[in-house]
Amino acid sequence: MARQLDEQMAGRFPVGQRLRVLDVGMGQGTQALRLARIGHQVTGLEQDARMVAAARESLSTEPEGIRERVRIIEGDGRDTGVHFLPGSFDVVLCHGVLMYVEEPDPLLAGLARMLAPGGLLSLLVRNGDALAMRPGLAGDWAGALGAFDTTAYRNRLGLDVRADRLGTLTRTLAGIGAPLQAWYGVRVFTDTAADGAQVPDDVEALLTVEERAGRTDPYRGVAALLHLCGVRG
Predict the structure, then answer these.
(1) Which residue ranges does the record assign to the Methyltransferase type domain (predicted)?
(2) What's the whole-number average pLDDT of the chain?
(3) Cα separation of 28 and 51, whole Å?
(4) Which of 98, 131, 136, 192 fits a disulfide with 147 by CB distance 3.0 to 4.6 angstroms?
């Protein structure tokens, strides 16, 4: 996903430009720190106090120049208008968040308002068009059959959450003024890997295959996750 994001950023902004990035639901700060290391100014917004603490701990180990480029705020992603002025960011990330939001449209509209003209909105969501893949590949035929006609599912943490369909999000992005420009699949072949599985020796080959599948039909359509990129008009 990081490679996909870098591709979209490189195609839309001048080389070397220091971008203003908002990471909504930043978690432990993996993407925020990565982008700060390559020179961008990053603001992370996260409501889970444990994740905020983890992100701050990770940030504390970085060189001063990188620490100065990261701002961490504890708060709800649905309240971006409370913290920031419209048009304040060149890039807005919202990765792995929408599945926990029952009504995502207001959140998405708020994220779009944070973008400057030409700004990039990057979403990572559970693929509602492929919910039957994981149980089906595991031989759970009842679970697979029940997944065809729903966007609700239980994740690996045991939480009841929701997925998003590509067609629905495409219409939503158009409606909030950040129409879809590109989309990718994420975890096409690796979704059934066990949690905590050891990183294989041929990880670069694995990533190359996943990256190729994530941009190629029909494989990307059955990925566990979808990475959608919209651009503010």
Answers:
(1) 22-122
(2) 96
(3) 5
(4) 131
